[in-house]
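#data-curation
PF: Archiving a pair of folding outputs for the training set. Convention for this channel: one message per protein, sequence first, structure tokens after, nothing in between. First:
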Amino acid sequence: MTYRIDCLQYANWSEKIFREMREGGVDAVHVTISYHENFRETVLNMEQWNRWFEQYPDLIMKGRWAEDVRTARETGRTAIFFGFQNPAPIEDDIGLVEILHDLGARFMQLTYNNQSLLATGCYEDEDPGITRMGKQVIKEMNRVGLVIDMSHSADRSTIEAADLSERPIAITHANLHSWQPALRNKRDDVVRAVTGNGGMMGFSMYPHHLKDKSACTLQSFCEMIATAADRFGVEHFGLGSDLCQDQPDSIVQWMRVGRWSKEIDYGEGSASNPGFPPQPDWFRDNRDFTNVEDGLRAVGFSDTEVAGLMGDNWHRFFDENFTPANTQPET
């Protein structure tokens, strides 16, 4: 059985989007449920998702383990896995790592652009690497099965996290810096550290991460994936679209600024265009994953490689990394 998995979306969720996931044959999505929210606010977001699970049981289900992807596939639904783009939900309490995993969290970024208590974000001028607390939190995340995500982290911090972690880490949504030199995209030494330690990277369709932005072609995007596969091994890659469908432009300010500044941080945007850029015409919503699949075949990937990139590689990663460390099968 092959799967279609998107390892990052932050949509303005609705029945329409849930139905489009089903039309697109999407078996699982890692959804952001916290940018800057503290523990209590994150729990409120989980409450909202529980209501959606009750309202749309024929469309979505809560994902906790890799086998939930199979269950979703077999029952015609999409499994929803929770993740955080910032360690804000654990506040300054390492004990909340296990609590949040128990509540369903499966990914947590150690930073979101800025310096955190754990590591350095990609927008900081200096990167001193993983902090004292960060080293302890990495151990605890490894123990409980909460995946370390370094999508918005700076280079040294990411490399150190990959080396310090006893379990593979992830970059859920980014592209190759050599293809598009955005601050958020990853240089080869960073990708090598993550993949060399068994980790995964999901390729992003967010226009600021794409070459030529909204005008990026499907061929260019898929050729970039082919380059990454040649350099680091196709088994380490998948998709993390970073789709922000139907979000109002005002939500960008929350994503970039939260409560840490009184000034507007335009991030990867510009003062003249501070909102969301238009998606490329080949990936507008969840119904367009078939276009990506066709594009991967067109640049020379085999059927097995395409299946891996579209979801099987993420499914294997879920199976190995969502459970507590002491339940891992012997190898």
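PF: Second:
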Amino acid sequence: MNDLIVDLFAGPGGWGHALNVLGVRDVGLEWDEWACKTRAEAGQTTIRTDVALYPVRPFVGRTRGLIASPPCQAWSMAGKRLGLIDQPLVHQAVADLAVGRDTREQLLAACRDPRSLLAAEPMRYLHALHQAGEPEWVLMEEVPDVAPLWKQYAAVLRSWGFSTWSGLLNAADFGVPQTRRRAILIASRTRLAGPPGPTHAKFGEPDSLFGPGRPRWVSMADALGWGRTDGPAPTVCAGGGPGGGPEPFPSGSRKTLADARGRGAWLRPVASGVGQVPGSSCGCGSKTAPQNRCCVRNRDSILRSSSQAHSAVRSLAEAAETLFFNSRANECVWTTSASAPAGPAAESAPLAIRITAEEAGILQSFPASYPWQGTKGQRFSQIGNAVRPLLAAHLIAPHVERIVTRADFALAA
């Protein structure tokens, strides 16, 4: 029975989590040890392997859907973008694999970045599966610079009888609290291919005679729950003390959230060891209390998305920019000043507090409880590379006869 959904370059489970939410499961192929462990903890079936070496034969005659998100490092603006130099070689590999000719070894030797050719691997699987009349549908995702390659894939798939669509989609248009643009390929043998309808809009839309307008993009504050009004009003700490940063109220005072909201605070209770103990000084951002985060939970606070001098900064009231995490550590920081230093210097700046893995995951539309595995660096690397599950769910839903609801992706704890 051809009911498998094969997920190439499955990562820590962006597509897999979306499928689980929709009541279906995938078989993920992934090389990274810690991404595989994350998927295992999340209950996702995984084969740890090199996608470029794994045989297609086990999936022939059994595959309903094929998903692929090849590694983006060779193409991403965060890297050297050698994939753009290698692009003609990748196009050649796709053209050759589409007719059953494997020239990968020769082409790989000519590539400036060996990861570039991984973007051609899905065609090897597609060609083998096509001989058995499979798969029923295909979904692929990559950085915007890969869009021309997806057009080549689309042309091949159309010649095989698929309906196809390729283009760019913004994750924020589908409820992800992040303005991440991605090149998408959609193909189907059984339905007219097309992008899902956006569920959100940058500025929100009024209701009309044709129905309700789309709500505005989900902000970081909305997603993280910073400013929620449900539940009992928490205690809000004052600044106070050397290095404690700006004081939202006079030193030593404590206010309820209801009172604080009128004075510009945007705060909520936080996990044990992170929040403020009533009656003590806050010390947010100080070396003596680096984990206290209440002062950055203010509507004037911003998130710096990387360590680069030109990195994007967004206020809590906005959707996040794409978050970049390098191979060493997380360099995304919450701060209260757009002029706060980036990189290592941010450590000693007042109110420059690194984002947590839980917060970063939520801003990618993963649940707060998602079981990231590995060291801090390994976790942030997984988060940065993962497909946004909420966008993935909207792409998958029509092909598995499901509907995505708001309750499916409640982000904040």
